[in-house]
Design goal:
Blueprint lengths: L24 E6 L2 E6 L3 H6 L1
Antiparallel strand pairs: 1-2
The chain binds zinc ion (ZN).
Zinc ion binds next to strand 2.
Length: 48
């Protein structure tokens, strides 16, 4: 029985609050905690 389960995984950027529906959101780990940030805010993260 093949089951095509489509998980609607929606992540939310912790900086601007956008969701992965609108903007690609990447997951990273900082100080042992999993964080989510969109590609728009990622440069800010890199610059600190
Ligand atoms: Zn963002």
């Amino acid at each position: 029985m093949a089951e095509n389960k489509q998980d609607n995984l929606e992540l939310e950027c912790e900086h601007c609050g956008t969701t992965s529906e609108l903007t690609p959101v990447v997951t990273y780990v900082y100080q042992g905690e999993e964080k989510h940030i969109c590609t728009h805010c990622l440069p800010m993260l890199i610059h600190g």
